[in-house]
Amino acid sequence: xxxxxxxxxxxxFHAVGMSPPPPALAESAPPATGRRDPLEESEFGFPAGVWxxxxxxxxxxxRRARTWRSPLRGPWLTSVLGAVLLVSLPLVTIxxxxxxxxxxxxxxxxxxxxxxxxxxxxxxxxxxxxxLYVLNQGTHVILGLVLIPVVLAKLWSVVPKLFEWPPARSxxxxxxxxxxxxxxxxxxxxxxxxxxxxxxxxxxGFSFYTAHYYGAWVFIAGFxxxxxxxxxxxxxxxxxxxxxxxxxxxxxxxxPEPLDSTGLVAAEPAAPTMGRRGALGLVxxxxxxxxxxxIGQVVGGPVRRTALLxxxxxxxxxxxxxxxxNRTAAAARIDPGETGEEWRLVLRxxxxxxxxxxxxxxxxxxxxxxxxxxxxxxWATTQRWSGVRLRDLAELAGNPVPGxxxxxxxxxxxxxxxxTLQANQVLDPDALLALRVNGVDLSMDHxxxxxxxxxxxxxxxxxxWVRDIEFGSD
Length: 474
Ligand SMILES: Nc1nc2c(c(=O)[nH]1)N[C@H]1C(S)=C(S)[C@@H](COP(=O)(O)O)O[C@H]1N2
Ligand SMILES: [Mo]
Prior knowledge:
GO terms for molecular function: oxidoreductase activity. This is Oxidoreductase molybdopterin binding domain-containing protein. It holds the Pfam family Oxidored_molyb. The chain crosses the membrane at residues 76-103, 141-159, 180-200, 212-231, 279-299. The strands form 2 sheets. Strands 2-1-10-5-6 form a 5-stranded mixed beta sheet. The protein contains 14 helices and 10 strands. The chain folds into 2 domains: 5-29 and 36-289, no CATH class; 321-472, Alpha-Beta Complex (Sulfite Oxidase, Chain A, domain 2), CATH 3.90.420.10. By secondary structure, the chain is of the alpha+beta class. A hairpin with a 2-residue loop joins strand 7 (432-437) and strand 8 (440-441). It is 39% helix and 12% strand. Molybdenum atom is lined by residues 326, 375-376, 459-460.
């Protein structure tokens, strides 16, 4: 229940040296502000009897809503934060859904596998530009992190509304407020699961992908209703003040927005502890800091060390193999006996089966391509790979124009030990079974004896320690 919250907040006010209104004031009649007080007013919308009992059921904490006294709260500030989220949250959402499609739901390898009528239209994920998935996941993860302060500020700006009583003045309002539950619950759930996933492996008792996917749809439903209901109010509120002059207004010159029916403006505003410029600056600085602490994972080079918020892959090798490793050979329990002299690559197609040693593969025409590996978690690393073209291997297998290729590895544990590639991902001239990187043999951790590297492919499908490729036609 939220009833305890206002009291805790009162304690917070004391802790930060602000004084809540004296109890006598809070319990006395509201000052003559012209604002409608729902407690003293009968309303249409609900039948009078329902309204009266709702009012009577008012929890004692509800009136404490008047302890929310920041003079900054108001429709303008809420709308500025709302406008930022209106343009940016759809980007985070769409890149997330695109990533689901990039995983190849048509092969049953996007999680969750079965999503019923929430199925997205699958399309062939392109192989060009090669950095497409770096851009997609960099945007999804880094923008998602950067928006956390904005989301929190937006929630802070509307928090008095959570304590309004009765919670809705009409059935339509009640529905609108229920949609807020989806919106706020959805966005917080996506933030928490997303952040935990880039920080740790498997901290959930459930599949991260499944939770994050359905959570996204809950958020989308709440977001669409909220935007439809609030957009006209947002536009009006944005026009009520000029951003430029707010950014020029000092703390001492800051005045509350005029009282209105939104319930956002404090009836008894306290003196400002910062101006709107300061508040927006604080949120902006928080976002900037999160961006600076994340961007290195995509940029790479020495800047990678600044990526404190995306800590995966800090176990690189040495020399030319000294770059990001997410999952080491030891972690994947790769048996060294399986990747030594005895190792053979098995190529299969409807017409037969062939085996090649690593020496034989190295004797074939070698191709070199500078390509990124981009993980769903937002990090990326670009290296110079060389090896045999996948389309040459398809031809050797006897299926030069395959419909798909199923790549399996020596690994026996782990969800990512095998992957299916689309036709375009096999036939791209830069799609490789890489044997070497940056001029030397792959290290064990980077997938020796051979790994898949395909432009714009989600990192997860760049299978390491490859043993078997089946080129299929159906
Ligand atoms: N056999 C196998 N290949 C794999 C994986 C794995 O767990 N097993 N991990 C994948 C993932 S999730 C990524 S992002 C890329 C790059 O991971 P790396 O940094 O561990 O090389 O390898 C992919 N190839
Ligand atoms: Mo990954």
